[in-house]
Amino acid sequence: MKKRLLYVFFCLAPCWMLSYEVVGADTTVVRDLSHDWYFYDVSRESYFPLVNKASFRGKTLHFDFSPSDFDNSILQVKGEQGYSLFLNNQMIGVIIEDQYYDLDSLKRVYGSEEWHFTIYHKNLDPFGVSTQVVKYSLSDKPLAENPVIIRTRQFHPFYNFVITALILIGAFLAALYNYFPRVLSDFFKVRRAFALRESDENLFKSRPLGQINLLVYLYLSFLAGLVLMLLVYQTGIHVEAGVFNPGSYWDGLWKWLQLSMLIMLWLFVKYLLISNLSSLFRLGGFMISHYFNYIRMSLIIFSLAIVIMVLSYFGFGVFSEEYYSVFVDIVLAFLGLRVAILFFKLLSSASYKTLHLFSYLCGTEVIPFGIILYLGLNQLF
After folding, report:
1. Which residues are listed as membrane-spanning (predicted)?
2. pLDDT at residue 153 above 70?
């Protein structure tokens, strides 16, 4: 067994050393193996070629080639997430940044028959992987004193869409703050929003459907829509729903607009629901305050959510599906906390009976939140 391990080590040693030698080598791409990728579809229990990288949700990618077709060549594999690379179902390395494998050395260990490669990662991103066969020649060409290496940017349509959406939302928020600073600051008063007692505030609550408030509702719709798309993409829940699964950059913007308009429609339905039930339960004095606090707490919750998600992914490189699944539970918990706070605010505003108030909140908050909770924890699509 020890002799076998030593034999494998000395055969693969040129592969590892080549990663240092190839820097000064002249290389030519012989074959881009990404065109040969295929994946296993669990639902249809069969292998299919990877045509659309944006719609890929698996954990493994596969490709095959015959090593006898390539002499004096190397396999160049690039990755960013720590991918595991398997050859004929045997792990040969972990891909972090660039790895090079000399094909002639691999032939001595694994033979010259057809090779089957597998790339595995729990949250596999096909846009972060590159597989190529390149030829190299260690010629004594003079190197420039200050060589300039240009790396082509990896094109990821979903995250390019996310960056564009963040810029648009930031511009929208800046415009609101520039023209309506007082109204916007009232909406983002965290202490008053989550206080258990309703306070008398000189707000624009008397006109919930005024022009300024409508712009704030529109901003909230775009913000919540982006948060939902990010959560679905990172956790993999509800990926079958077309509105959460954009196939390209422009398709992502279009579906974000569609989802935002659906949320805006829900805000109008919510207003009608609160207005009618408050009249039915004779709580008309609380109607405007209820809707205002609902919008205000929603703004704060989704604003914190987008900041944490952007920092987690783009700032700290957190790709774990479990992390974002726990984050979904935290967001749902805050939405549930919103229902409890609204109950105490209503209880402190007048001497209503608890059962009377709870019946009102069941129609306006508890039942809608139960539907959201059910959709968030179950994949119905």
Report:
1. 158-180, 214-233, 253-273, 294-317, 323-345, 357-377
2. no
Compare 61 and 236 and report the one with higher pLDDT: 61
How many CA atoms, within 13 angstroms, populate the side-chain half-sphere of residue 80?
12
Enter the DSSP assignment of 365.
I
More confident residue, 354 or 121: 121
18 within 8 A of 75, measured Cβ to Cβ: no
The pLDDT of residue 378 is: 54
Distance of alpha carbon 244 from alpha carbon 233, whole angstroms: 7
Q: Mention every residue, 6+ apart, whose C-beta is less than 8 A from residue 280.
A: none
Q: Which of 227, 342, 252, 226 is nearest to 292 (CA)?
A: 342
pLDDT at 18 > cutoff 60? no
Domain boundaries, the chain: 20-137, 157-377
Q: Where on the phi/psi map is residue 111: left (φ > 0), alpha (ψ -120 to 50), or beta?
A: left
Supply the Cα-derived Rg of the chain in whole angstroms.
28
Helix residue spans in 281-353 (DSSP H): 284-310, 321-349
pTM for the predicted model, two decimal places: 0.62
Residue 85 near residue 95, CB atoms below 8 Å = yes
The encoded tokens of residue 308 equal: 């944490």
Q: Enter the tokens of residue 36.
A: 């040969």
Give phi and psi for 378, each to the nearest 5.
-130, 145
Amino acid letter at 1? M
Per-residue CA distances from 209 to 206, 257, 261 (Å):
9, 21, 16
Share of the chain above pLDDT 90, in %: 19
Task: Determine the Cα angle at 68 with ends 63 and 73, to 5°.
Answer: 80
What is the dihedral sign for C-alpha 192, 198, 204, 208?
positive
Report the CATH fold assignment for 20-137. Answer: Jelly Rolls (2.60.120)
